């Protein structure tokens, strides 16, 4: 707002009327927030509470919203009753490897797309962008055939391969680099810095927020990916948490409490990571508007 | 300044091309082999039949002919459209409504903006399992709630052929509404405050301001959201696989799942590719429509 000397307010618009309006707005806002929060959180609450109940207690009528005695031992039992350690180990390994590769190759390529001018560059970038609209589901068959021929199916490499070189990273990083003025890069060139030096010592440090966004998005995507591992990882020692949990659910279908314990443990790390890096995550989602 | 086409200029272009590609290459190699090549191969495989030894043999339009007479394929198309037609408006209205109501500086709103993302980032396997339990007929909390408000015979949800798709749609909406609410909230920040002020001076009430200022101001955002929702609906797969696996019967079998079935359960990679092409073309159509509309808007 600019600070013009305010003309005397027209007497028609009663301030009390507007205040009443805004109070109704606030109440409505609170009400909507409360209803929406319950709708969003209730399934998560139910998941946690059920993990602390006995199996018989999970489904009772009327619904019990608290366990009669919290069965904390489920959180110890699940490690011996399932291969959770293996699944988590594979998932962490894949998430870290994919994230590192995606961030490195994505930001590297984005520098070429944004700061170096050469023929064919823009057409190629358009190809990258176009594939963002192509759902993976529509080319998963030929991709699988291809990777099988390269003898990569049923290895962890397959997941790294299909996740690490997506167009998302290039797109997100290029959007950010476009906001960095070319003059800055030109000045460094005049000072005799090589292109790799500019990327390494100017662009990377300047783009930490974008790198954080990309890293978080990739990490969450890889951790939660269910379809990739479902298609590629047949041997049980390669399973990720999603695939393992899925099998556990079908094998122990009546052990509701333990199933919910596994579910809580599969969601918890991501929720923690999200809460820590929420700002970057939301920014990344807002600039790309795309995921999965 | 050297003239374009002169030797030094050409040398500079050559040097830049080399430099540029050295930056692209690590990513481009992976991208070309794992995305571009599969997309290209898709259009070859769609015209082939696979023998048991895993060899592709050209079969022309056989797959297309088979598809036309394949009632399961058409059922999958119908179910995909069923999901699309309900999932889009439902998610649109809920996320837009939440964004309009929550476009305020309240502490509770900040809390909700965080929480709204949880369904979106939580693993689909865990989420689907929880909802299946919530929906369990007779004993589940959803049915208990329905009985409490006077519904004597609540639906069987995922165990009933009539109600499994609505159950999947509800969970799909629950999962995506927070994400699209955030996009709408970002869009709301671009609606100029003076317009609201002007509408207020003209005596417009909150409802009229919504229709006259907010919704027209949000038109580009809304369009973007509809495009995203359409593509998301066409390609829905993981939610279906873990929640209903297409059942009961074929009541929730969708296009992407039919691709999965034909390809990975029956090893008919040729036919599965032909079905994939349909999925691909559907999404291409949506994207082209988006381009056309955007261009008209810019013109």
Automatic annotation (TrEMBL), chain A:
Domain of life: Bacteria
Region listing for Disordered, in residue ranges: 1-20
A molecular function (GO) term: ATP binding
ABC transmembrane type-1 domain mapped to chain residues: 88-277
Membrane-related topology note: Multi-pass membrane protein
GO biological process, one term: transmembrane transport
Start-end of Pro residues biased regions: 1-13
Chief location: membrane
Record key words, sorted: ATP-binding, Cell membrane, Membrane, Nucleotide-binding, Transmembrane, Transmembrane helix, Transport
Transmembrane segments annotated in the record for this chain: 27-48, 92-113, 125-145, 157-177, 198-220, 256-276
InterPro entries reported in the protein's UniProt record: MetI-like (IPR000515), MetI-like_sf (IPR035906)
Pfam families linked: BPD_transp_1
Subcellular localization(s) per the UniProt record: Cell membrane
Keyword flag Zinc: no
GO cellular component terms given for this protein: plasma membrane
Family as reported in the entry's similarity comment: Belongs to the binding-protein-dependent transport system permease family.
Name of the protein in its database record: Sugar ABC transporter ATP-binding protein
Source organism: Actinoplanes siamensis
TrEMBL record, chain B:
PROSITE patterns the UniProt entry points to: ABC_TM1
Compartment(s): Cell membrane
Gene Ontology terms describing biological process: transmembrane transport
Transmembrane portions of the chain: 21-47, 81-103, 110-131, 210-231, 269-293
Coiled-coil residue windows: none
Gene Ontology annotations for the cellular component aspect, listed alphabetically: plasma membrane
Protein name: ABC transporter permease
Annotated source species: Actinoplanes siamensis
């Amino acid at each position: 707002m600019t600070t013009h000397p305010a003309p005397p307010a027209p007497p028609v618009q009663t301030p009390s009327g507007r205040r009443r309006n805004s109070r109704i707005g606030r109440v409505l806002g609170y009400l909507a927030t409360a209803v929406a929060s319950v709708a969003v959180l209730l399934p998560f609450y139910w998941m946690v509470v059920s993990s602390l109940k006995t199996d018989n207690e999970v489904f009772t009528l009327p619904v019990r919203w608290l366990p009669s005695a919290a069965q904390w031992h489920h959180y110890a039992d699940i490690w011996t009753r399932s291969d959770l350690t293996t699944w988590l180990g594979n998932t962490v390994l894949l998430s870290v490897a994919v994230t590192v590769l995606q961030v490195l190759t994505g930001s590297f390529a984005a520098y070429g797309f944004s700061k170096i001018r050469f023929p064919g560059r823009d057409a190629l970038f358009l190809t990258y962008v176009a594939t963002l609209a192509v759902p993976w589901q529509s080319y998963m068959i030929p991709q699988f055939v291809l990777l099988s021929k390269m003898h990569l199916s049923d290895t962890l490499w397959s997941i790294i391969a299909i996740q690490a070189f997506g167009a998302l990273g290039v797109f997100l990083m290029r959007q950010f680099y476009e906001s960095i003025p070319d003059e800055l890069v030109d000045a460094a060139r005049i000072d005799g810095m090589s292109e790799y030096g500019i990327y390494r010592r100017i662009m990377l440090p300047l783009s930490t927020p974008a790198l954080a966004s990309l890293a978080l998005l990739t990490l969450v995507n890889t951790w939660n990916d269910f379809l990739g591992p479902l298609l590629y990882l047949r041997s049980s020692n390669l399973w990720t948490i999603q695939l393992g949990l899925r099998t556990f659910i079908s094998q122990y279908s009546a052990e509701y409490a333990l199933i919910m314990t596994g579910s809580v443990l599969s969601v918890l790390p991501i929720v923690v990571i999200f809460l820590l890096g929420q700002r970057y995550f939301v920014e990344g989602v807002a600039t790309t508007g795309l995921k999965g | 300044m050297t003239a374009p086409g002169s030797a030094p200029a050409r040398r500079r272009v050559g040097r830049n091309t080399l430099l540029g590609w050295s930056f692209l290459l690590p990513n481009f190699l992976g991208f070309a082999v794992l995305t571009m090549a599969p997309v290209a191969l898709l259009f070859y495989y769609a015209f082939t039949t696979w023998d048991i030894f895993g060899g592709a043999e050209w079969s022309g339009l056989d797959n297309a002919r088979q598809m036309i007479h394949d009632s399961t394929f058409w059922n999958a198309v119908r179910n995909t459209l069923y999901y699309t037609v309900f999932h889009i408006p439902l998610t649109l209205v809920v996320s837009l409504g939440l964004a309009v109501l929550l476009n305020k500086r309240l502490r509770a709103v900040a809390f909700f903006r965080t929480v709204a993302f949880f369904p979106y980032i939580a693993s689909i396997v865990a989420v689907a399992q929880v909802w299946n339990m919530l929906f369990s007929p007779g004993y589940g909390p959803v049915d208990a709630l329905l009985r409490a408000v006077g519904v004597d015979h609540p639906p069987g949800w995922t165990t009933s052929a009539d109600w499994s798709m609505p159950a999947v749609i509800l969970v799909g909406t629950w999962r995506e509404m927070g994400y699209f609410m955030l996009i709408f909230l970002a869009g709301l920040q671009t609606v100029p405050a003076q317009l609201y002020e002007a509408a207020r001076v003209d005596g417009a009430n909150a409802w009229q301001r919504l229709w006259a200022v907010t919704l027209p101001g949000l038109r580009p955002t809304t369009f973007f959201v509809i495009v995203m929702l359409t593509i998301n609906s066409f390609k829905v797969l993981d939610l279906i696989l873990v929640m209903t696996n297409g059942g009961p019967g074929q009541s929730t079998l969708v296009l992407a799942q039919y691709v999965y079935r034909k390809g990975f359960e029956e090893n008919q990679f040729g036919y599965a590719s032909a079905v994939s092409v349909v999925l691909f073309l559907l999404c291409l159509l949506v994207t082209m429509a988006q381009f056309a509309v955007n261009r008209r808007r810019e013109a």
